[in-house]
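User: Reviewer 2 asked us to show a designed sequence for the structure in our supplementary figure. I'm pasting the structure tokens here. Could you produce the per-position amino acids so we can include them in the response letter?
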């Protein structure tokens, strides 16, 4: 079963949420927007937001609504307890209780399967424990982590608890970020919900541009690349001498696919938030332009990284308890991050490998600095920076193999990629890996354009001003062109893939 079929099957089994790319969502958001900005509701916009968010979530899976509500009530009450009793035991209690909700629904069957595997290996007559087959509500990992930021902000930062339950519930269930983030800290989003918001045309245009760019990322980049990923890894019918070339292209494509797919949702979520007059932070800061693996993970999924730093790394001691303890804390964070991404051992191994690589990079940093100094080489010169970026991209691409495949398949793929001979990439059939030569060329062009504009977006405000300075006719022409390309791609044979986002499954 390939990646998109697996995601689609999980979506059918558990949730049927309105995709940001669907006409149903367009109608929902338009109706919601009208009510949100009606003058009579200006002082209670958070209630309109709460109602809209729960409608959005209930339409996807009404059975999961009580879980969302339960998380909200638990952390809301926990905030008052922590405000009155600023004791670690109370913080740990509510923190663990909230995470227990995530563990029960996401990891119960994984734990049972692991126990059964160990029991069977140790005793052939082991009677396997039955699976519970609990639903995994979409967005659970995200809104559980988002609600824990509220506990953390009250306990560690002295933030006053939110007295209005409906406003707090709107924060936890904020529908643009509900299913796949970015994870919002309460100290950033809650204050924005305390004041009436008037419609701002300039901010709405910025939001619309972000949303349209997100559509392009999903439809023209992610959906095209996933065809190559699935074709590249499905090499059972491909002669052995061609497998390495297919695996190489599939690994590179997946590295860009997961970036484009996740970035597209984050950008669309930010765009919707801007239209609502709310600011949501960026989730990606050009991670593939990083020169170290540690830098890559600071730039990748920024909101999740911030959560782990504040709630795991710093409480464990951060870098305050010596060099060994610092690296141990880094390893623990990556181990938990791997488990957070999926209830499967390949995700755990993915986290462990990245943790080890980051630690090795940290330990070798002084030696690398000394080497550059002895060789009289400036490590920040363009050629060295380019080389370091290429190495980071390659190591990250290799680790993504475990993210996409089971452990056995991943080890097979890595064995072939590590001992790669460039001559083995000279396979003419690669030009049809996306279905046809035309589709393959389009996939490459879209991916290159995506990487180029993402790099330019490191200064979003400057890029927006350049767009704003263009004549109105050319602005409309550019947007119409992008939307036309998206529609053409979505209606082509290569574009008919699942419109749900990969991170819905986490």
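Assistant: Here is a per-position design you can include in the supplement:
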């Amino acid at each position: 079963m390939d990646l998109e079929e697996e995601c689609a099957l999980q979506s059918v089994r558990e949730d049927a949420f309105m995709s940001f790319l669907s006409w149903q969502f367009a109608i929902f958001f338009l109706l919601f927007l009208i009510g949100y900005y009606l003058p009579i509701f200006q002082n209670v916009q958070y209630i309109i937001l709460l109602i809209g968010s729960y409608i959005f979530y209930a339409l996807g899976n009404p059975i999961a609504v009580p879980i969302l509500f339960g998380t909200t009530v638990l952390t809301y009450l926990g905030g008052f307890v922590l405000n009155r009793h600023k004791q670690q035991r109370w913080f740990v209690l509510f923190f663990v209780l909230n995470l227990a909700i995530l563990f029960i629904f996401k990891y119960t069957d994984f734990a049972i399967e692991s126990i059964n595997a160990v029991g069977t290996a140790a005793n052939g007559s082991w009677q396997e424990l039955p699976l519970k087959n609990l639903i995994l509500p979409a967005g659970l990992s995200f809104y559980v982590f988002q609600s824990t930021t509220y506990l953390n902000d009250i306990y560690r930062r002295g933030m006053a608890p939110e007295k209005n339950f409906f406003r707090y519930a709107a924060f936890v269930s904020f529908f643009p970020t509900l299913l796949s983030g970015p994870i919002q800290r309460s100290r950033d989003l809650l204050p924005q919900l305390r004041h009436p918001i008037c419609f701002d045309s300039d901010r709405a245009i910025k939001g619309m541009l972000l949303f349209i760019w997100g559509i392009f990322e999903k439809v023209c980049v992610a959906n095209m690349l996933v065809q190559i990923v699935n074709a590249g890894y499905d090499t059972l019918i491909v002669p052995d001498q061609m497998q390495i070339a297919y695996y190489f292209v599939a690994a590179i494509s997946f590295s860009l696919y997961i970036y484009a797919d996740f970035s597209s949702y984050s950008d669309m979520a930010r765009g919707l938030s801007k239209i609502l007059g709310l600011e949501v932070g960026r989730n990606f800061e050009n991670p593939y332009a990083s020169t170290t693996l540690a830098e890559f993970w600071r730039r990748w999924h920024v909101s999740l990284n911030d959560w782990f730093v504040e709630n795991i790394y710093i409480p464990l001691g951060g870098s305050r308890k010596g060099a060994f303890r610092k690296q141990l804390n880094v390893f623990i964070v990556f181990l938990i991050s791997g488990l957070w991404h999926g209830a499967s051992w390949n995700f755990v191994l993915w986290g462990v490998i990245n943790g080890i690589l980051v630690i090795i990079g940290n330990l070798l940093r002084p030696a690398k600095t000394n080497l550059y100094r002895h060789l009289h080489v400036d490590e920040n010169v363009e050629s060295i920076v380019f080389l370091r970026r290429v190495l980071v991209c390659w190591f990250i691409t290799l680790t993504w193999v475990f993210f996409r495949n089971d452990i056995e398949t991943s080890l097979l793929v890595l064995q072939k990629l590590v001992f790669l001979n460039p001559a083995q990439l000279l396979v003419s059939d690669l030009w049809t890996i996306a279905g046809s030569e035309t589709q393959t060329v389009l996939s490459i062009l879209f991916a290159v354009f995506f990487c180029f504009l993402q790099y330019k977006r490191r200064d979003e405000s400057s890029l927006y001003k350049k767009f704003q300075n263009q004549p109105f006719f050319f602005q409309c022409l550019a947007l119409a062109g992008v939307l036309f390309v998206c529609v053409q791609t979505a209606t082509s044979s290569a574009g008919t893939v699942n419109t749900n986002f990969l991170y819905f499954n986490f």
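For the response letter, you might also mention the following. Confidence is low (pLDDT under 50) at residues 4-14. DSSP finds 20 helices and no strands in the chain.
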